[in-house]
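Morning, I've got a small favour to ask if you have a moment. The fold is given in discrete form, as structure tokens running alongside the sequence. I'd be grateful if you could look everything over and explain what you see. No rush at all, and the record is pasted right below.
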Amino acid sequence: MRICHVFIAILLMLSVADAGAQQVDYSVASVPEESGRQLVKVTSDADCVCMPIVKRSKTSVDWFSNRILDVSADGNGLAYLAARNGTTNVFVKRLSGAGASMQRTKRSSVIDFSYSSDGSYLCFSEKKGKTNQIFQTDAVQGYVCRQITSGAVDYSPVYSADVSQIFFARQEQEGISIWSYDIQNNYLSVYTEGMNPFPVAGEPSFVCVRVNDSGKGEIWKVDYRTGAEECVVSDAEKSFASPVVSPDGRWMAFVGSSRIVNDEFSYMNTDIYAARTDGSELVQLTFHAADDVSPVWSRDGRYIYFISQRGSKGGIANVWRMDFNL
């Protein structure tokens, strides 16, 4: 699994199905294994939702694992990455369905982003030549940005619960590691190897992704005060990435690989999974042959939003919502 390198190809993100998946019937909105999930399509084709790159072979599947969805602090707005006019930027759509989507960044190549928990700020990374830079901007109005990092390959920014730090991943020659930026004091700290960091509510820890020696993505939990580390989700046959922790800190949703087999073909796929933050009660939530990626929780923890081509005959990506009722 090479998900640690896929982010470099962000400018190639697709809005339609990839050629390797052309046998899939995307027009079906759900499959029997998903009964009880109450799947609802949130966006429309006109929203131009970016579809993260998914690359597959007969034996493996790789995907762009950075977060490109989030829900506003009041729970009423869905932020997503859209490709329009030759650029990729953050747009916000009211979950009530009223009104058009509003553009929230005015850049060239936004890669990923995250809201602060208090709803004041939006942090994002942008591709600039051979580097990725992290910025912060007002979450509600204006395009003025504060540059957080420069001269490196930084991505996957996410705020700590108290909005005092921005955690992010940095790729260097020796690998990828988790860093943080102290917003008040303007200094950087490095913690451990990994990518896709996400803080756990109510405790000084974050979950992140590491790729093991066999190429499979694993989810680790790291106490950033004591340095204690624990692998909480791992499987000899599956890869996992893109973890996001529920608002109450009890659950995490993430993307995992799977294999779909029927009478016509055997197909490597991506689906949404969930588990307790200690790794227990692992469960697969989606089973559609479309690519289900980029999960994010609603602010009340009742729903999970994700990107998928399901429900579209032409394989156009949209945001979907499903109940979380374990």
